[in-house]
Amino acid sequence: WVLILDYGSQFTQLIARRLRELNIYCEIHPYNVDLTKVSSPTPGGIVLSGGPMSVNDEGAPHLQAEILDWEIPILGVCYGLQLLAHSEIPGSVEKAEKREYGRANLLIDNAGDLLKDIPTGSVVWMSHGDHIHELPDSYDIIGHTANAKVAAVRHKENDIYGVQFHPEVAHTDHGKQLIENFAYSICGLKGDWTPESFIDEQIASIREKVGNDKVLCGLSGGVDSTVVATLIHKAIGDQLQCVFVDNGLLRKNEFQSVMELYTRDLNLPVRGVDASSEFLSELKGISDPEEKRKVIGRVFIEIFDKEIGSDADFKYLAQGTLYPDVIESVSFKGPSATIKSHHNVGGLPEKMKLELIEPVRELFKDEVREVGRTLGIPEHFIGRHPFPGPGMGIRVLGEPTKERLDLLREADFIFIEELKKQGLYNEVWQALAVLLPVQSVGVMGDERTYEFTVALRAVTSVDGMTADWAHLPYEFLAHVSNRMINEIKGINRVVYDISSKPPATIEWE
Ligand code: XMP
Question: Are residues 50 and 79 in the same domain?
Answer without folding.
Answer: yes
